[in-house]
Design a protein that fits this description.
single chain; alpha/beta; 434 Repressor (Amino-terminal Domain); Rossmann fold; 3 domains; 6-stranded parallel sheet; 6-stranded mixed sheet; 12 strands
């Protein structure tokens, strides 16, 4: 029976490198080409491994080159929403002995050209697209990459992993209404370059208000363009210029909600006695705000994990039609939306 030493000599690498590959150890980088040679040599020599004992159903047949394009620019690894999705993606790939070739975002036209170069240089087999990106880049990816899987995007032509944004927002606002609130503000932003009021979380807010027969005060529908600073500044301005204040604010992300909470407390408003807050995402810090923020738990890690599973399944030709996988969200009720006496 072949030994690690035999495989190492045949491939031309160290025994420790062979050992790391056999153990699916992703802590130290080994090129995909070398990794592939090691597995192929091991199988040719009859070396029995955990990998070879797995069924084809659960294990990809090849090592693939995977890229990722993210909607948010540059700080994707520090963003409390996107970073968890990326964590799920990287974890899922590591268990299969793979890694992301790159994580890229589009900010300007020249970035589209750079992305095209990256795809060609890394010989990308599959691409993960996290939320909507520059239309030209997206069209090129679909035309030039063998398999594309989307995370939280709308496209019937490709497999997609998502959660129901509109339903989540509607449930959060309905909770506020059940608590007795009738003047509920909205803070959010557009999807890419779309109209602010076409974003799904706004539509969920709008539907909840409509079903309850409640009017929407346009002065308190605030487009902060997903910018934390704008969320604080524009909410502060609304308190100063558009009285009376709402009794509750639904924000389309926790970061926007937390910034608006600061504007409210600086105004002298008590949370939740004077004004309630509800966010979306369940980022880690939301549990530690003062008071803790009620929020929608978005299954960020799971979306990343399942996106990789779908991508590898399609690359292995296990499916032929694009499927849409909806991951359940959870409504987390905390102190910021608690019903106060007198409401």
């Amino acid at each position: 029976m072949a030994r690690l030493k035999d495989i190492a000599e045949h491939v031309g690498v160290s025994i420790s490198t062979v050992s790391r590959v056999m153990k699916n150890d992703s802590n130290r980088s080994v090129s995909d080409e070398t990794r592939k040679k090691i597995w192929e040599t091991a199988e040719q020599m009859g070396y029995r491994t955990i990998r070879s004992s797995k069924t084809k159903k659960n294990e990809p047949k090849h090592i693939y080159h995977i890229g990722c394009v993210v909607a948010i620019p540059q700080n994707k690894y520090n963003n409390p929403y996107f970073s968890v999705i990326l964590e799920g993606i990287e974890k899922a790939l590591a268990t299969q002995g793979m890694r992301l070739e790159f994580v890229y975002s589009i900010e300007k036209q020249s970035d589209v050209e750079q992305l095209q170069k990256l795809v060609k240089e890394h010989r990308i087999d599959g691409m993960l697209v996290v939320e909507r990106i520059h239309p030209e880049a997206y069209t090129w990816i679909k035309a030039n990459v063998r398999t594309v899987v989307g995370v939280d995007i709308s496209d019937k032509d490709i497999p997609v992993v998502s959660y129901d944004r509109a339903a989540a927002a509607q449930e959060a606002v309905s909770h506020l209404i059940d608590q007795g609130h009738r003047q509920i503000a909205y803070i959010g932003g557009p999807e890419l370059d779309d109209n602010f009021r076409k974003e799904k979380r706004y539509l969920g807010y709008q539907q909840a208000m409509k079903e309850a027969g409640l009017p929407i005060n346009d002065d308190w529908v605030i487009d902060v363009k997903w910018d934390v600073s704008l969320s604080y500044e524009l909410t502060k301005q609304a308190f100063e210029n558009h009285g009376p204040s709402p009794t509750a604010i639904f924000a389309a992300s926790d970061m926007m909600a937390i910034a608006a909470m600061r504007a409210a407390t600086e105004r002298g408003l008590r949370i939740p006695e004077d004004i309630a807050f509800f966010g979306v995402d369940n980022i880690e810090i939301s549990e530690f705000t003062s008071p803790p923020l009620s929020t929608i738990h978005v299954p960020k890690l799971e979306m990343g994990l399942f996106a990789v599973k779908l991508l590898l399944d399609y690359l292995d030709n296990q499916y032929s039609i694009p499927v849409k996988m909806i991951i359940p969200y959870r409504c987390l009720l905390r102190h910021s939306s608690r019903k106060s006496e007198g409401q």
